[in-house]
Description:
Layout lengths: L1 E5 L4 H12 L3 E6 L7 H10 L4 E4 L5 H10 L3 E6 L6 H6 L1 H19 L6 E7 L23 H19 L3 E7 L1 E3 L18 H10 L5 E4 L11 E2 L1 E3 H16 L7 E6 L5 E2 H12 L5 E4 L14 H7 L7 H16 L1
Parallel strand pairs: 1-2, 1-4, 2-3, 4-5, 5-6, 6-11, 7-10, 8-13
Antiparallel strand pairs: 9-12
Helix pairs in contact: 1-2, 1-8, 3-5, 5-6, 7-9, 7-11, 9-11
UDP-4-deoxy-4-formamido-beta-L-arabinopyranose binds next to helix 7 and strand 8.
Subunit structure: Homodimer.
Keywords: Carbohydrate metabolism, Isomerase, NAD
EC number: 5.1.3.2
Amino acid sequence: MKIVVTGGxxxxxxxxxxELQNEGFEVVVVDNLSNTSLSVLDGIQNxxxxxxxxxxxxxxxxxxxxxxxKRHPDISxxxxxxxxxxxxxxxxxxxxYYENNINTLVYVLQELQLKPEANFxxxxxxxxxxxAETMPITENASIQTAxxxxxxxxxIGEEIITDTAKVTNINAILLRYFNPxxxxxxxxxxxxxxGVPQNLVPFITQTGFGLRKELSVxxxxxxxxxxxxxxxxxxxxxxxxxxxxxxxxxxxxxxTAKVETFNLGTGTGSSVLEVIHTFEKVSGKKLPYKIVGRxxxxxxxxxANTDKAxxxxxxxxxxxxxxxxxxxxxxxxxxxx
Length: 337
Ligand code: WQD
């Protein structure tokens, strides 16, 4: 079966391509290479022994999207990762985010609805919950006003898919990721942040390697056990496997609704200081850091209630924070070595 993976050379996309190939799927990767590099294809091949078909494609170009789908009439599903994802950048440049995250989704759905098998997996985010009232967060927690244009594009994306699935043959699963971290155990693929990392874990591993002077911890005055903010850090390979399981659910017509939603996390919250201490444990290095003020738009706490994914998808995150941090550190050493 042929599956299209948009943004398939990105961090989560590339790990998902590996898991799709491991399950015997024929994969066509589309990516505009704006936030990754072609070398990721080599990494994928080094892991699975198979090079996925690749087409450089900017999904903002509607005609090119139409032509691409015309050239692939036998598609069984799409896993849609392609989007911009830097929260801070989205505040500075909202129109870039609305164009790149919304228009592209519309163009892909307009073509997918024409296929006899219109199965769609959407890369969403726990950011749609904002600061949820109750921890752990379930899928029916209220959707708060987005804290950033990036978060808003995920909320709008979910609404577009829901409205479209109602009146087309599209079946969809929305996967709300918590905080993806780590790298493939082979160290053939991993996170490739361009410029100064915005996310905690790549900043930690770059600091550990000596590329950054010290980590700034954004606030230790949160109402949490140690004062630093709490998140649910999930190994990217666990996340990738969930995408294949969700896709197979649709292909096997096991879904019980046109659109289903699942939180993908470990179910455990970890504070910034706990992540730092875990890094120090797995690397044997002391991490230089300083406490600074809170980052605009950050929430206190977010970790997933994973019951629905565990029971309905039959999926559960396998890696611990320690294993995920060890894989992130191993990857940092590999790419800088
Ligand atoms: C985690 C914690 C920071 C950097 C965002 C998006 C989410 C997803 C993941 C795309 C927070 C603290 C961070 C640093 C720090 N993105 N931190 N110093 O903000 O939870 O989630 O990225 O899919 O949708 O919202 O992740 O890694 O940026 O921050 O203290 O240098 O680490 O304040 O508490 P976040 P993050």
